[in-house]
Amino acid sequence: MSHAKPLGGSIFTPAFMLCLVLFVIGMYFLGVRFTDGMGAVANINGGFPWGIWVVYDVVIGTALACGGYALAITIYVFNKGQYHPLMRAALLASLLGYALGGVGAFIDMGRYWQFYNLLLPWHMNFNAVMLEVGLCVTTYILVLVIEFAPAFLERIGAHGVLKILNKMLFIFIALGILLPTMHQSSLGSFLIAMGYKVAPLWQTVHFQPLLALLTALTMGFSIVIFEASASQVAFDLPDETSLLSKIGKIIVGLLLVYLVVRFGEIILNGKVGYIFAGDKNSLLFLLETLLFIFPVVALLSQKMRQNSRVLLWAAVSMLFAGSLYRFNAFLFTYDPGPGYSYFPSVGEVMVTVGIVAFEIMAYMVMVKMLPVLHKEAHA
Amino acid sequence: MDRRTFLKTAGAGVAGAACISTVADARPNLEPAPEAVGMLYDSTLCVGCKACVTACKEVNDMTPVDRGDGHIYDSALDLSGDTLNVIKVYSDGTAAVKDSEENGFAFEKRSCMHCVDPGCVSVCPVTAMRRDPLTGIVTHHPDACIGCRTCMVGCPYNVPQFEYDNAFGRIHKCQMCNQEGLERINKGGMTACAEVCPTGATLFGPRSMLMEEAKRRMELKSGDNYNFPRGDISKPESYHEKELEADYQNHIWGEKEAGGTNVLHISAIAFDKLGMPPLEDRSYASVSEGVQHTLYKYMALPAAAMAGLTYVVKRNKDNHDGEE
Amino acid sequence: MQGDFDALEKRLGISRRDFLKYCTGIAATLGLSTSEAIAMAEAVAKPKKRPVVIWLHGQECTGPTETMLRSEHPTLERLILEMVSLEYHQTLDAGAGHQVEHLKELSMKENAGKYLLVVEGSIPTRDGGVYCKIAGKTMLAHTVEAAENAAAIIAFGSCASWGGVQSSGPNPTGAVGAQAVLPGKTVVNIPGCPPNPYNFLATVMHFLTFGTLPELDSQNRPKFAYGRLIHENCERRPHFDAGRFAKEFGDEGHKKGYCLYKLGCKGPETYSNCPAVEFNDVGGGTWPVGVGHPCFGCTEQGVGFTKPLFSLAEVQTHTPPNAFPSIAQREDTPGMSAGAAAVAGAAVGAAVGAAAVVSTRLGKSDSDSET
């Protein structure tokens, strides 16, 4: 069935050890958070209750983990079977990204010991975006585990289970498409309820879900390009540029839709003035827009799309654009009223860095031990 | 992606967006609760005695804010996990004249406004924030709360506050002295802040009566004498006569803002100077729920999408498996 | 020094110990140190020449003089009478009639530029000031004449300070304070109804000792006595801060000594040292608010005799030292630390760096595959 193979090789590489050190530092600060309260580590406050633990770990982290989702749509909805070789690596990255997004949400939960209330029907508020996100993300993590399970089952040789699972897998794949569509758009819907606190250029009200979904999808495709390129050089794998260049084409299409909706909303609602106001918000908007436009321009021609380095930089630009879009809306231009400000503390950043380091460590170990990547060229 | 596919995708996106924006206006603002109680805070009457701040701390058993720099009194700067109510001051220039925007000062009370259509209630995933169906009082229930703090981002007034300095902290907010174990309103009493206010700057009572009182005051001009009630407007403890020194702004904060609030504010200076947020009449809760319900009405759309997806995925997956 | 005190003991008929105690007490009222109390004692014990005092009475109830007479420090009146040379005082003078008036004129001529003028009572100005005449001359004329060559002028009591009760509407006599009829001259105001004698004595002692007047506020009241609101030093203040108010006379809160603000106490807008020095040396909290009556603002022009007794005061404590958080002040909003900026920057840098490394090596493999 799959041609993926465990890569093998030494686990304790220098990169792994560096990540381990960062992870240990992060865990120290996390310990302080659990013994002395969140205020002891994080700079979140009355006006900025959500710091980078929510905005990076959950809102951006899960968008960066949309690779599995984006590829699943491509492969199973648009019937492009040739992308199968990229699927497992994307699923693994998605699984890790979402699992750690879940961990991030958990550590940011002020009353984590009652998190199960989210799952008790008599506590649920079906009007709440947070409920939808919480349930969707929790379920999607389980779906991702099941979707990735074949890699593990192949490794341990449980062919019987694998066969049964494979028969039912289509349901989980469908869920794996539906759930991210729901919660990635809902992550945008969060911003609606924040009202005036979100700066006008980012407060698109009814368009929030659509913009969030479009950028999440684009980020998902971009992370596939980034991971494939990084794996290629890190593990000396065959070149996948021809497959990736087709993804580049999808990115251009999605981005054009995004830009039309984004600027259409701004023009129709008469908010153009904010773009050229020359203040912090307008500069951040221009930077964000540049990062969005770069991939479009860079990948417009067929020739450029065939260049692996251009593809990589376009993907990186898109990842930064999507991240900055979220950072801008949730943090950088977020204004809860005079006197409030937020910048993460060292401890706060280190916890997030620790989580990302763990993600990288886990990825490196899993691709060496489980059949995730392909050694032979496919395209 | 070829040009046709692109146009198809773009068209679908725009159509979807249009659909969202039209149907999303389905739910109107909530109406005030049938027996809504609230408070009327008249900034021109406030003398800054902070008796309400002290009484609030005492009645609600809140810890003093300790800044460790020799402050003897509880000197909270703003609402926090330790403070449900605080008196703040706007001041300009020499700050010599009360209730003047230029070279003047004015007091402002910060506490929960008890929105008619509360954002915190709308966004709370576990119904830890509840609006009393009868009195409209917005209460918090820590036994349900998971500490996600969405209520804090969803509140236009930054009212719910988390105890960040406590490893097992909780959300705190004004519950009109009617939380379990206190229940002053249920017992026929009034809020502690209104009870102790010596000038009637904080006046308790049914929202409708407070609204009438506020409208009566809007009619007054500086120089007029007026008999201001103290305590509970439905049974005032006493009155005091006072000559108005400044004209009121013709604006009752909480009549319409984001669907209105049960706690009303009136003042002689503009509310943005007093730190009130830029709100329109439509509540964020109604807009947000409108979008959510359009997308998830009875889970119909997701269910249909799931059915379609399952079919497509199964067909395509079988194809791929067959190829292999 | 010893000899001076012996002479003083003989002269005043009080013990040296009692005398020093008195001087220290006065110095304490002024907020002066012990060494300055000794200087004060010396100034009294060996006067260069006892300063002459001319004391005028206008429209009033003689409250300030009465309160002076009731000062409870040992043999105070004798001390004052011996200490200064009180050459004209309508209440206390033994003599009367034209003889006394004549002596006053003589004394003013003889001590021109050296005597101390004390004005008690308001001065009517309407119709040429005919509503108060002494010895056929208006109080207005007396005041202007006496002020001409005075070394210092003290207006004692609220009437002399701004007109007091007589100046309240409709003010048929056009009563004003001493300052109003003496433009260009410095008049020290010691308002109060009645005024506290120690604030007067302390001002006089300051003048005798240092030859200058104590520091004055914008209404020419000595700052040592009128620098703080009654509200700031009031023993009932904690009840105000906690919202515990007496709601009517004789109610539960009134019996318990709660704050009298709701009963119309003007302490929050009246400057005076009443809560600190109290009244009549009885001690034990004997002053209006101390015994359960709201302050009516007698030392404050525009409050006492002007505002209704039981109307609410305008609380003045928004001024320093009382502090309120401004609208924009918030709890715990730590700013950006250099360390955090560096760490956050490094994280973003690492992401870009990783992309750059991948890009370089991609380029290499590209060229490798081409060759």
TrEMBL record, chain A:
Q: Where in the cell is it found?
A: Cell membrane
- Membrane topology recorded in Swiss-Prot or TrEMBL: Multi-pass membrane protein
Which GO terms fall under biological process for this protein? Answer: anaerobic respiration
Segments spanning the bilayer are 7-30, 50-77, 89-107, 127-149, 169-194, 206-226, 247-270, 282-300, 312-334, 346-366
Record keyword Cell membrane present: yes
Task: Provide the alphabetized UniProt keywords.
Answer: Cell membrane, Membrane, Transmembrane, Transmembrane helix
The main location class comes to membrane
This entry carries the following GO cellular component terms, namely: plasma membrane
Keyword rRNA-binding in annotation? no
The record's listing under PANTHER family reads: FORMATE DEHYDROGENASE, NITRATE-INDUCIBLE, CYTOCHROME B556 FDN SUBUNIT (PTHR30074), NI_FE-HYDROGENASE 2 B-TYPE CYTOCHROME SUBUNIT-RELATED (PTHR30074:SF4)
Q: What is this protein called?
A: Ni/Fe-hydrogenase cytochrome b subunit
Lineage at the top is: Bacteria, Pseudomonadati, Pseudomonadota, Alphaproteobacteria, Rhodospirillales
Automatic annotation (TrEMBL), chain B:
Primary location: other
Which InterPro entries does the record associate with it? 4Fe4S_Fe-S-bd, 4Fe4S_Fe_S_CS, FDH_Electron_Transfer_Unit, TAT_signal, TAT_signal_bac_arc
Q: What keywords are annotated for this sequence in UniProt?
A: 4Fe-4S, Iron, Iron-sulfur, Metal-binding, Repeat
The compartments listed are:
Cell envelope
CDD domains noted in UniProt: HybA_like
Pfam families reported for this sequence:
Fer4_11 (PF13247)
List GO terms (cellular component aspect). Answer: cell envelope
Q: Which Gene Ontology terms cover its molecular function?
A: 4 iron, 4 sulfur cluster binding; metal ion binding
Q: Domain named 4Fe-4S ferredoxin-type: which ranges?
A: 37-67, 103-134, 136-165
| Name of protein | Hydrogenase-2 operon protein HybA
Provide the species name.
Answer: Terasakiella brassicae
Its gene name is hybA
UniProtKB/TrEMBL annotation, chain C:
Task: Write out the annotated subcellular location.
Answer: Cell envelope
Cofactor dependence is on: [4Fe-4S] cluster; [3Fe-4S] cluster
InterPro entries in the cross-refs: Cytochrome-c3_hydrogenase_C, NADH_UbQ_OxRdtase-like_20kDa, NiFe-Hase_small_C_sf, NiFe_Hase_small_N_sf, NiFe_hydrogenase_ssu, TAT_signal, TAT_signal_bac_arc
SUPFAM superfamilies for the chain: HydA/Nqo6-like
Known EC number(s)? 1.12.99.6
What is a single cellular component term in the Gene Ontology annotation? cell envelope
A single GO BP term for this record reads:
anaerobic respiration
Name the domain of life this protein comes from. Answer: Bacteria
Task: Give residue ranges for domain Cytochrome-c3 hydrogenase C-terminal.
Answer: 226-307
One short Pfam name that applies is: NiFe_hyd_SSU_C
Sites where the protein binds [4Fe-4S] cluster 2: H231, C234, C259, C265
Record key words, sorted: 3Fe-4S, 4Fe-4S, Cell membrane, Iron, Iron-sulfur, Membrane, Metal-binding, Oxidoreductase, Signal
Q: Which family does it belong to?
A: Belongs to the [NiFe]/[NiFeSe] hydrogenase small subunit family.
Question: What is the name of this protein?
Answer: hydrogenase (acceptor)
In which organism is this protein found? Terasakiella brassicae
The gene coding this protein: hyb0
